[in-house]
């Protein structure tokens, strides 16, 4: 993920000054309305406060007791996206529309310390899998950045600032950034920033790279892989290499959502891949459309709870696949309400410059799934059933969603949609 900041164009001054009297009258009227609303709201709150105080305290105590460390850590990760601005760059208007996009909670005091703990959990050196999350900043050498900002991101996010010459050597700077990303992702993410993404107006580039490689806890035998048809829709199919095995896996079916869910553990069992497979449809849709409309993070957590999934003898057929996708998220974020970040934000918590705006948000992802396991970059012996028992089947021969989750923290690292073979 890359965030690019540039200097904003200065607006032209109007030739004639607007009339100030109507503005002052409007301001006074707005102030009176606001004061009246505040007084009424305070009176209502005062009347209800006494009778609800005991009830509220009891509810909060109950919530505190039932909240697990994993849930707190997951909430902290989500809140970081909002409070990165309110705690490090206090004078920013950006959180107002980040709230609209991300719907964060407001009960986490030390977001950055929690996120730092999350990074430590994910970047374990003795893990049976390779998982690297790295952050870096590239700043224009002639610009000044707030020391508190640099100190906080280094402390909590292990992110260093590299000074580069965007003004006269923008392309060399782009190549440098791409080389760092390629190294962090073991060569899987190349040419992240295309030509022209950074130029002489670029001031700051924030880069996040994540790399994952893990082997299945129960590997697929390559000799069992067969040629099969993958149904893109009701009428069209493509050939795929279909991996096959029969063993015990965590499995559940959600009838109200018309979806089956399979969990494939990686070695060490700290990470899992969840496959969300829609039921077959008779019309021209793939079933993904309805699933994506229905699916929320809360439902994902509910549906994948250990007590909701049962160890089931199951025949699994999963295509071998490799995907690489690039996205420019600027238009997506603007459509979600973040237009001010690209035109009219206060980033004075990062730099004393008054004309800093977000210019680009670039994301590139890679994932490969084969018999051994999974390689991704933002990437026990089976019990055979008796012959008279017909096992449950999970045949992923049509479009599905997949999620790679870090189980101790319940953190979803990768989300993907597989719709068609290459």
Automatic annotation (TrEMBL):
Per the record's keyword annotation, is Acetylation included, yes or no?
A: yes
Biased composition of type Basic and acidic residues is found at: 9-58
Pfam family membership, one: Serpin
What is this protein's record name?
A: Serpin B6
Q: Provide the residue span(s) of the region labelled Disordered.
A: 1-89
Swiss-Prot/TrEMBL keywords: Acetylation, Cytoplasm, Protease inhibitor, Serine protease inhibitor
Location in the cell reads: Cytoplasm
SUPFAM superfamilies from the entry?
A: Serpins
Residues in domain Serpin? 78-421
Specify residue ranges for compositional bias: Low complexity.
Answer: 59-89
Identify one Gene Ontology CC term for this UniProt entry: extracellular space
Q: Does the keyword Oxidoreductase apply?
A: no
What protein family is recorded?
Answer: Belongs to the serpin family. Ov-serpin subfamily.
Example GO molecular function term? serine-type endopeptidase inhibitor activity
Q: How does it assemble?
A: Forms a complex with the monomeric form of beta-tryptase.
């Amino acid at each position: 993920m890359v965030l690019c900041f540039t200097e904003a164009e200065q607006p032209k001054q109007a030739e004639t000054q607007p009339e100030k009297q109507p503005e002052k009258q409007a301001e006074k009227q707005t102030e009176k309305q606001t004061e009246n609303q505040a007084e009424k709201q305070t009176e209502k709150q005062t009347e209800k406060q006494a009778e609800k105080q005991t009830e509220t305290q009891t509810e909060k105590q109950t919530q505190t007791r039932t909240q697990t460390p994993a849930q707190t850590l997951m909430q902290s990760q989500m809140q970081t996206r909002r409070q990165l601005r309110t705690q490090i760059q206090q004078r920013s208007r950006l959180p107002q529309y980040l709230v609209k996009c991300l719907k964060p909670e407001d009960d986490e005091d030390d977001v950055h310390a929690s996120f730092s703990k999350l990074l430590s959990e994910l970047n374990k050196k003795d893990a049976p899998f390779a998982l690297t999350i790295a952050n870096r900043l590239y700043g224009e050498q002639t610009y000044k950045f707030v020391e508190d900002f640099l100190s906080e991101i280094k402390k909590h996010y292990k992110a260093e600032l590299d000074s580069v010459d965007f003004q006269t050597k923008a392309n060399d700077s782009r190549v440098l950034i791409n080389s760092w990303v390629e190294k962090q992702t073991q060569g899987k993410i190349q040419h992240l920033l295309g030509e022209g993404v950074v130029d002489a107006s670029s001031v700051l580039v924030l880069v996040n790279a994540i790399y994952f490689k893990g082997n299945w806890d129960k590997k697929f035998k390559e000799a069992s892989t067969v040629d099969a048809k993958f149904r893109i829709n009701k009428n069209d199919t493509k050939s795929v290499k279909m991996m096959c095995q029969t063993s015990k896996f965590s499995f559940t079916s959600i009838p109200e959502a018309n979806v089956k869910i399979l969990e494939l553990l990686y070695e060490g069992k700290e990470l899992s891949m969840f496959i969300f497979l829609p039921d077959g449809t008779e019309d021209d849709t793939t079933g993904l459309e309805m699933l994506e409309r229905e699916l929320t993070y809360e439902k994902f957590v509910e549906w994948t709870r250990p007590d909701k999934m049962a160890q089931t003898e199951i025949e699994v057929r999963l295509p071998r696949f490799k995907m690489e996708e690039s996205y420019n998220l600027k238009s997506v974020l603007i459509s979600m309400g973040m237009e001010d970040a690209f035109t009219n934000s206060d980033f004075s918590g990062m730099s004393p410059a008054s004309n800093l705006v977000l210019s680009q948000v670039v994301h590139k992802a890679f994932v490969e799934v084969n018999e051994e396991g999974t390689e991704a970059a933002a990437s026990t012996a089976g019990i055979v059933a008796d012959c008279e028992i017909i096992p449950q089947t999970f045949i992923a021969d049509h479009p599905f969603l997949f999620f790679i989750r870090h189980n101790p923290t319940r953190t979803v690292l990768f989300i993907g949609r597989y719709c068609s073979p290459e």
